[in-house]
Amino acid sequence: MAAPHEHQYVEDFENLLDPGGNTILNMLPGEAREAVRSGDPGKVRRIDGSFAIAEKKGKEVYLARSIGRPMRYFLAKQAAGPLLVVAERIDEIFSYLKEQDLHEQFHPSYTRMVPAHHLTRLQLVGCPDPSPEYRRYFDPQQETLDGDLDAIGARYIGALAEECRKWLQTVPEKEPVGVLFSGGIDSGSVFLVLYHLMLEMGLSPQRLKAFSLSVEGGTDAKQAAHFLDQLDLSLFLEVIDVPPGEIDYKKTIRITEDYKSLDVEAATMTEALCRTIRERYPEWNYLADGDGGDENMKDYPIEENPELTIRSVLGNQMLYHEGWGVDKIKHSLTYSGGLSRGHVRTYAPARHYGFRAFSPYTLPNVIEVSEGIPFIRLTGWDPEELYGLKGEIVQRGVKAVTGLEMPVFPKRRFQHGAAPREKTDELFADDEMEYRRYFASLYA
Hints:
alpha/beta; 5-stranded mixed β-sheet; 5-stranded parallel β-sheet
């Protein structure tokens, strides 16, 4: 259901990206394209919003994206020289190569994902293919704020609110706005900030709705109801009931083009939610969500990942956002790291069903505040202290910005809250290799 692509064929460059998929909040689309084309990371940093932009300048192509939108490329061989194909998705690249009778060169592992927060430069100069050059355009400093949790919360949620305000100004006046809502800290804070802003901006809050998924009585729907009841806002809740038989991780793998277990599972629930919203509301366009909030607050169980320690999580800039970094051996070219890769769990299902998704926690202006939080000083390298910090900061921030007392519940992954845990175990594979094999079979 995505918008039709606008093709830009210039000699050795095919740009399949749909410019309508960008949500740029502070400048015209042409100004954003020119910022990327300049090759100047400082100019790219000034683009506010979610975007994926590719621009050709002579024999150089510059590519830049935020976390909020994926971008891939593939270099094909022709007698006249290399052909660079840039697209949002792997299957779009493959389809184009088939049209050009170049598909025998293709394998999904040969595609490259542009890493978020970097300006990537490619040279179209033939064999051997030059390696991409990465220059960081977003470089937030760590541990720059003091330890006052009230001040940190006000600044963090204040940044979130400012991005949400800009976004609401881009939404047509009568269009409804939905929030993918579990009643957790991230979706809860996004909902309350949007509610507060709509009142403040003189917009009708009746346009707002909180959509919660329930698969055979999952706990998220109950939590969502409890959250809104405490604030006397229960009229905004709409529970979306989906039977277990309609949960299909294979369809989700085709949509997300990925196979990491936790992301596949979360995306499968998002697919079910977006699909059912679309069925109920054929004309609905705008959805917001809280994806990225966990990464910003480094709020994942470290003990569940043998590669991580509290020191690696707190000591490496944006580790959960970007993985180990483009200059590290662990960096994959086929997939970038962290949320730069994993955000397809939220973005791709929404895009597939024709929604314009907005994830304000993934925007650089919000991430910049979170990276400045003095996590080491506040936690003393204690994981339990780290896990408790997110609720404290966000709750205080929501209070400072909106005046509302946000309820805070224990953290739970989407796939574990949308359905009972025993049912979740039945719906998904036991081993990530099953997901990998299925994805590989799509191009066998």
